[in-house]
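User: For a benchmark we're assembling, each entry needs the component sequences followed by a predicted structure for the full assembly. Here are entry 17's components. Please fill in the structure.
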Amino acid sequence: MLAKVTGFALNGLEGYKVDIEVDTHNGLPSFEIVGLPDAAVKEARERVRSAVKNSGRTFPVTRITVNLAPADMKKEGAYLDLAIAVGIIKITSSGFTDNITDYVILGELSLDGSIRPIKGILPLLISASACGYKKFIIPYDNAGEAAYIENITVYAAKTLNQVIDHLKGITLIPEVEKQKFVKGGAEVVYPVDLSLVKGQAVAKRALEIAVSGGHNILFIGPPGSGKSMLAKCIPSIMPDMDFEEALETTKIHSVAGRLNADEGIVKTRPFMSPHHTATNISLIGGSQAVKPGIISLAHNGVLFLDEMPEYPRNTLEALRQPLEDGVITVSRAKANVTFPANFMLCGSMNPCPCGNYGSKKHVCKCSQAQILKYKSKISGPLMDRIDLQVEVDSVEYSDLISDTAEETSATVKARVNRTREIQRERFKNELKVNTNSDMGEKQIKKYCALSPECEEILRSAFDSMNLSARARSRIIKVARTIADMDLSETILPQHILEAVGYRSLDKDNV
Amino acid sequence: MNYTDNERAIIWLDAIIALSREQKLKLINKTKSPAAIFNDVSVVEDCVGTVISEAQYGYIRAAKELNVDDDIIKQLNKENITAITCMSDGYPSRYLQTSEPPLILYCKGNIDLLSSKHTFAIVGSRKTLPQILSIAEEFSSELAKNDVTIVTGLAEGVDTAVINGALQTGNIISIIPGGFRHIYPEFNRNLFEKVTQKGLVITERTLATVPKPYLFPERNRLIAGLADGLLVCSAGQKSGTSYTADYANEYGKNVFAFPYSLGVPSGEGCNALIKEYAMLCDSVDDIFLSLGVVKKKPEKTVQLTEQEQKVFACIKQGEIHIDLLLQKTGMKIYEITPVLTMLEIKKYIIKNPGNTYSAIK
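Assistant: Structure for entry 17:
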């Protein structure tokens, strides 16, 4: 007797079809799974046996062989449990109406026959749908993720019996209702709002510029000055994610198993804040199973590195290539996977190791050599990718209780959307350039022509403020964004002057 | 570089580390001619017991083994170092008026600076407010442009700012505590190179002397001795800078100090100096007046726009935080940032760490 069922397995963010063939033949009773299963798949034997029995069905007392084709790909995780169980039941009982290989069956089994949620449903469904499959049986708890994919029929089952009854046509499982994706919407709620940050006019302005032009930003300030709070506000002023962005982000979070059951699709921009003891692999992605790292989880959102100089040098250097390309390719012996990693980098650091440099109340105990060493932990090439460096100072008590109305995130976001629209229009013919921060030397020449007056101001700024030469193109890029925010076609002197103000680390003597 | 017999003898004598500077000077004074000692060591024999000990006499005799030309002068020439001894022509006469003149000055750079008509020392501690640093730089550049040679050290903080201010004109003398093989602090090596190219670096120590802490007060004595006057930009309560001021005072030079408000750790020493003998300095004109130098050309005034004037007026009242500045001027943040940057470029204000601004005009 032979039964065939279709499942899907994941390789990075892409799914591939797995044919599950179940065969029984005479011999001593046994249950073998072949086709490069990993430990979790092998253990499916015990789960499937118990689940079938506890669902009140007979488990054949013969020699059972399950083959997972293609045989040369390593199958991981427990999401083939349900398909294997269906295959075994198909052998022993009759009455399956539909041709069940039309279905893609995904789910992990519990010993009592109920179906448990699995990771990575969204990328699995997208890949399967691209392969032409239309009908899916998935765990009930994963239904939310399936609601946004069009042209497919999804049945979300709670127990093994429900699945069998459905496949036999006895009791049909209701289809998962489709949902229309609405950009933004009521469910996009961020825990912090810019209006909660009192004072800090400079930092807020810099934040708006950074988000408007997609620039990376670094906050420099003593401990307790509100750097993290400001960073947490970034997602709330970034433009709402469109469907493509949301889907991409959801895919990654789905694979990483970070989705809530009722969330379905990720609509809020992610904010990832890894601790500085995080390993390279956890940040970049990898491990044996080739999992997306934190920078991929921050895709379309914010990667916040608190106390940036405390991170190991090699961890920071590993960020350079994804910052440049927006993707990260993780290569392992078993697989070679490219994860998207297009995030906005926000860093924070103290002005010196003891944190009191420049403070009037406390004496800084650091020698200049120590301060230089501390600052040089962020390498020049990495600093080149950080367009804005802003000082944040400790807030006075009187500022905290003042009730001057601060702008809300929504107001700022509206302006950001407008500025982004200008950039979209400008770069519509440019490959791989979406925002001002993405501009290379070529685009800077083309879109950021400076009047002689501006050139003169920039030159005198360099002279009198001891700016290092590599700051030039960054200043121009930021000036372009400021001009866009000002709805100005050309870069005016005041835009250059403001941009120069956000280069505090480039001054040679500090 | 060719040296006379006396000069060679002093260079040789300086290399004997067993003798102190005072002893060497006494020996020279007693015998009237260092060359005589060099040619025949026994002329100092009658000084044994009074000026030098028996053991030290032994060291001097042993030093005869030393080949001055090959071992010392060749090295100095190789590294472009000129030794100016107390018997050389170029020896600064200012030192002769001090109680502890140096035996020898090892110089790297433009030695003509030693005979400058006007010299002025600007010193301060390593930890100094950024506002003061830029004022120090401004003062130094102003004085140097008017042919006043600036004398200072080579440390971080005020010394660096002062050097930066005067470097363009080259009227700068940096005095270091150790030998030329040990530049301290190491990260100022670039600055050291720049000073040797445009200005002058001097030390009274032989090439390989390590800058030990006790050498710093000795160096401070040289700064005070070479300058016609001294400005103390910043000094903590127990600061080496105060020693420099004490030396200068002792040598009868004009000592100036910046006034500080209460509770600024880096200014306590300055206020203490003003209380004792220093003159309060709040403008570079005070220094010009004391040196008797007339400023060459009236500085060209930079025009401020109406908006810049408004903002500058607020900053001039005292160090101010940007949030408060916004409240006072009623400007928006995107309006005020360009103005502040422009004021910074025009050198009217300086941005302090912590988003506060101070006036430097």
